[in-house]
């Protein structure tokens, strides 16, 4: 997915990186398999190689060596500080909305469907105002029938529309599992490449504040085996907007996992248009002693633990893996080769979660570089209880992360 | 007069007695498109709408084309039967013989811009949409030249350029897809409709009603066609449906019950449905049809129904015989011409089978193609991690 093709008739907003270089005529890095088209921009890799992409989400400059990175290789601050322009501050759900709105402006094929996304504005306000702007045909309020409207989105995608399907809560998408697995994931393959399914399936998931078991589900572990889909998880307003845009532009079906508790995070993001690479992990905090891999809400628990760890003299490297399928083994691998110790902190269940797959992948690929077994901290294999204290104990807390790091670094 | 027509035909062995009937002007085989009107044998039954007229406008060209296409489909399915028994086709193979009138009748009423989506009994629908016999057989035998490059199989035939969207294994799931196609047609202002086909078994799926609700709510040009062959695998309709009047199940959505073994009735109903859907939103068509084979090649088809029933339907309602009678009574073709046509078709099918048998099987690298569009540099491995290794480009 290195080449993101501009679509839609004469894309009006030309992309410009936020160091204000005119990027309307970008030259791709030499990648022979890509065809040259008039308007293209490439997400640059940290070392400019074709196959792998480092922690960068910036557009390449014309005929100059690729910009190494723009995303947070700085410490915990927002990723936009290299901007020469001030940027604007917003909340994560507003960033999602901005991304969605920009894509809908850009390409008339993009439409949104979901429960209460139109007139109500979305249960988490991600689609607020869009129905007034784009009308009822492009922002569709569906009845409560996840199986049917997910199937409809996929059918529409087979003809070339680009629906963004919202599950009001990710857990409801279990009702649409057949459509997501069999039709969304497999149609491109079983039709021998005739049909592409450029849908985005998005919604909030994860453990919230005492929402109860059925509204606190983490579906990334159930979906991860489906062949043919991509999964990404956003965690900051910056990557939320970037991933939303990239997911919409991708020709593959992408499932974008948001988290119920992260919608009100505030950050300053660039004014200019940008996207984030779908298959790339984000380096949150470089370090030397141990690699901590995480995603979504657990990133914040890890960063909190990191403060304590730094005070205790440890230097953790924190990577937000962002891409849950496929894993960015390049970034992860480089980190493992540097630190030789891995801790995975996730919100999935212990059994069959993303962490379990990631542990297997790291062990298989980087076994020689590990000084200690890969440790994985996940939620308990229980339905999320309602009581606040019990709910706290189901998910990983910063104190547990600190203990785990101390244990691994002995 | 009759003689002048005779000379332009290939068949020169007509008895002179024919000339004694000057009034029976023999229409030249396959080029005459002057209209004929034929009454359907069975009336339409409707729900919440008016029935279309029983008089169907057609032409001798069209009826002959029906015969030819149906004979081709029938031969294809019989050939698939033998190939399956010869273990060249594996897995599940669901045959459509007996139901051909549906495929040809529908095609006669619509254009290639209208979309068709169906479930796994899709071989003949694929041919009706313009698919080639050799592509179908190659796909059935898992060859690289098949319509899905060998990766789909019997249940996953697709033809995008003819708006044929498959080919689905999980019955009922194609109905929301079909309503999605209709949605896209409305979104793009295509003035086209979508026919979403399903069987009497799938008619009990909840997603059908969910999709129907949305289609009716948003006025989508979706036509849901229930191919009622009276058996959902081994379960007869009276055992699976409290209300086997599938055309009425739409409740607020109009419906029409059609004799699905009569290609002309099917054509009339589909034409009517298309006009209706473009103006008023969804409509349900129930096609009363029958399959001679069992549910699939693994099912003998006689444990839940009697052989007498099957042969009875074959004698009385067979779609090809019906068209043959039409052709003979309207003097559009002679017995011999039709037999010659069938021989030709048989040869055509045999040639396609032979050609498909020669086609190459996909090589191992095909395992990973078309996973993603413009893949992401991911490395993929076969099970042993050594022999098959590919970087998705």
Automatic annotation (TrEMBL), chain A:
Coiled coil: none annotated. Residues 90-265 form the Transketolase-like pyrimidine-binding domain. Keywords: Chloroplast, Metal-binding, Oxidoreductase, Plastid, Potassium, Pyruvate, Thiamine pyrophosphate, Transit peptide. InterPro entries: Transketolase-like_Pyr-bd, Transketolase_C. It holds the Pfam family Transketolase_C. It is found in: Plastid, Chloroplast. The keyword 4Fe-4S does not apply. Its EC number is 1.2.4.1. The keyword Repeat does not apply. It catalyses: N(6)-[(R)-lipoyl]-L-lysyl-[protein] + pyruvate + H(+) = N(6)-[(R)-S(8)-acetyldihydrolipoyl]-L-lysyl-[protein] + CO2. CDD domains: TPP_PYR_E1-PDHc-beta_like. Its cofactor is thiamine diphosphate. The pyruvate dehydrogenase complex catalyzes the overall conversion of pyruvate to acetyl-CoA and CO(2). It contains multiple copies of three enzymatic components: pyruvate dehydrogenase (E1), dihydrolipoamide acetyltransferase (E2) and lipoamide dehydrogenase (E3). NCBIfam families: PRK09212.1. Tetramer of 2 alpha and 2 beta subunits. This is pyruvate dehydrogenase (acetyl-transferring). It comes from Arabidopsis thaliana x Arabidopsis arenosa.
Automatic annotation (TrEMBL), chain B:
It comes from Arabidopsis thaliana x Arabidopsis arenosa. The keyword Oxidoreductase applies. This is Pyruvate dehydrogenase E1 component subunit alpha. Keywords: Oxidoreductase, Pyruvate, Thiamine pyrophosphate. It comes from the Eukaryota. It is an enzyme of class 1 (oxidoreductase). Residues 68-364 form the Dehydrogenase E1 component domain. Tetramer of 2 alpha and 2 beta subunits. Its EC number is 1.2.4.1. InterPro entries: DH_E1, PDH_E1_Alpha_Subunit, Pyrv_DH_E1_asu_subgrp-y, THDP-binding. GO terms for molecular function: pyruvate dehydrogenase (acetyl-transferring) activity. The keyword Coiled coil does not apply. The pyruvate dehydrogenase complex catalyzes the overall conversion of pyruvate to acetyl-CoA and CO(2). It contains multiple copies of three enzymatic components: pyruvate dehydrogenase (E1), dihydrolipoamide acetyltransferase (E2) and lipoamide dehydrogenase (E3). One of its GO terms (biological process) is pyruvate decarboxylation to acetyl-CoA. It catalyses: N(6)-[(R)-lipoyl]-L-lysyl-[protein] + pyruvate + H(+) = N(6)-[(R)-S(8)-acetyldihydrolipoyl]-L-lysyl-[protein] + CO2. Its cofactor is thiamine diphosphate. Transmembrane segments: none annotated.
